């Protein structure tokens, strides 16, 4: 399990022969604060170490986003997203147009595919 942490606020030390010992209480509080500060510092170092390991495994990263012509990284991302959306809309419209052309072509075909060349005049009438 590990060793049990003994609290600096050990109440056995707080009561002297004359009752409540204020100096012992102040010492205990100072000791507890120092221990807490030390634990916090160790925790920060541990987190920093974990963070650095994660960054190193991901490879080198720039400190700030690439900025061209004085634009911020956020505006670049927004512009890229806008261009991507425009491209998607254009592709969708192109597909829709092709589908409509295909439907028009199928509508133009004669109903009776078996029609011979002598019935060509009827096909011309349909057009």
UniProtKB/TrEMBL annotation:
**Which spans does this entry mark as compositional bias, Basic and acidic residues?**
36-45, 86-102, 109-127
Q: Where is the composition biased (Low complexity)?
A: 76-85
State the source organism's domain of life.
Answer: Eukaryota
Q: Where is this region: Disordered?
A: 36-127
Q: What is this protein called?
A: Uncharacterized protein
The major lineage groups are: Eukaryota, Rhodophyta, Stylonematophyceae, Stylonematales, Stylonemataceae
